[in-house]
Structure formats: structure tokens, C-alpha cells
Amino acid sequence: MSEFAEKVVLITGAGRGHGREIALAFSSLGAYIAANDINPINLDGTVDQIKTMGGIAEAFVFDVAKRMPIEGMVSQVLERFGRIDVLVNHASVQPNALAIDMDEWEFHRTIDVNLAGPFFSMQQVGRVMKEQAGGSIVNLISAYKPGNLQEGFSAFIASQAALVGLTQAAASEFCAYHIRVNALCQGAFGFGQMLLQGWDEHAYLNWIDSYPGVNLRDVPRMVSLVLYLCSQEASSLTGQIITV
């Protein structure tokens, strides 16, 4: 039997992309999935897919940009499942606007979702895990784009850099409660995804060529790293920032 069997895994941003892949992976190992997203249509797709596979999942539609909705989400997860063993912070937004042009709402929305969201999620879930005498938290951090390709993503990159520091600081504070906090910096996993982040094909292919022999499109490998960080095998790892 898998060590994740009947464990409760809360995943923010589980309605799409890597969030959905991670939810499916944990479910395939017998975990109960508390799937969060702000988009109910995307979230229903994830939950329906898990249930079709014979897994157990519940949708929790909340905006994780503020403390009160997060507190409500955690309360509902506990009401449904009774505990939370793993938290994966995947939800993020990526506005594409130059710093000189970005309006105040876009900036605060980026910081609220990408930084305040993980902070208050770790706070609320951390209190649950403290009472349970342990747990595992993984923050997903998107890849920075090198050189001049960073134009238009200053607020986003600031939020991701801050999340690195938050991960390390939280790991130090949570260690006394046997709660591990790590981060996984996601690399490139296909041209389609990178297009959404503003890459052009020439830049993307040149970047891949700089890593000879490495398959940067291997999504399951990234998912496997999340599973590893939450496993007993990684029980001595906390405060780590792992870059794919």
C-alpha cells in the first residue's frame, strides 16, 4: 500500500496545468484530494477525472489571495476530510505588463495571489498540521526567464523571488512542529507552456540546447519530485529550493 493512501492533500490552483497533474498523481497513490481553484469549470474537470479513475476528490472554489477565504477553505476541508497531511501551493497569476505601465490593481493582485496566498495557506494549514504533529508543504515557483526575456514580468518575478525567501523562513519556524516546507522551481516542459510566458520559438530552442541530454519537457518527472518531497524518503529535507 502507498504511503499516501488515505492521506489528505490540499492543492491550490488544481484546476489546470501542473496543479491538475499533481492532483492526479497523488490520487493514483490513494490520497484524498482537496482541490482548490478560483475557476469552478476547470476545477470540476480535475475532480471529475479523479472520480472517473476511482479516486476521492472534493472541489473547493475559493480565491486564495486573501486570508479570510483561505481560512474558510481550510475549515471546509477539515469538515469534509478531518485532516490535512500535504499542502501544495500551485495557484499563481502572471500579468504581462512593464513596470512603468503596470497599474496598482495588477501589482497587488500579483503579490496577493503569488505571495500572500502561500503565506496564509501555510499559516492556516500549518496550525492544522501542528495539532497533527506533522505534515509536508511544497511551494511551486515558476521559472524565471533569463536575460531580456524578463521584460513585462517584474511584479511576477518579485513575487516568486519572495516566495523563495518565505519558503526558507517558514521551514525554519515550522521545523519545531515536524512540518517540512520545501519549494520546487519549475523549469520548461514544452513550447506551448512557454509561449504563455512570453517566449518565442527561437529563444526557447536555444535555451533547451544549453542543457544537452536533459529532457526539459518531462512533466511526470516534475510531478515525481513533488511526490518525493512529500514522502518519508525526504523526511530530512526542509527549507530546500530545488530547481528543475
Describe it for me?
There is one protein chain. The chain starts with 7 loop residues before the first strand and ends with a strand. It has one domain (8-243): 3-Layer(aba) Sandwich (Rossmann fold), CATH 3.40.50. Strand 2 (32-37), helix 2 and strand 3 form a beta-alpha-beta unit. The protein contains eight helices and seven strands, in the order βαβαβαβαβαβαααβ. The chain is an alpha/beta fold. The longest helix has 29 residues, at 104-132.
Tell me what portion of residues adopts beta-strand conformation.
15-25%
Largest sheet: 7 strands, parallel
What is the rounded distance between the termini? 29 Å
CATH class: Alpha Beta
Assign an overall shape: globular
Any idea what the radius of gyration is?
Answer: 17 Å
Q: How many discrete domains?
A: 1
Number of helices: 8
What is the CATH architecture annotation?
3-Layer(aba) Sandwich
Helix content: 40-55%
Question: Which stretches are low in confidence, meaning pLDDT under 50 for 5 or more residues running?
Answer: none
CATH topology: Rossmann fold
CATH superfamily annotation: NAD(P)-binding Rossmann-like Domain
Question: Total number of β-strand segments?
Answer: 7
Q: Would you tell me the structural class of the helices and strands?
A: alpha/beta
Strand order within the widest beta sheet: 3-2-1-4-5-6-7
| SSE order, one letter for each helix or strand | EHEHEHEHEHEHHHE
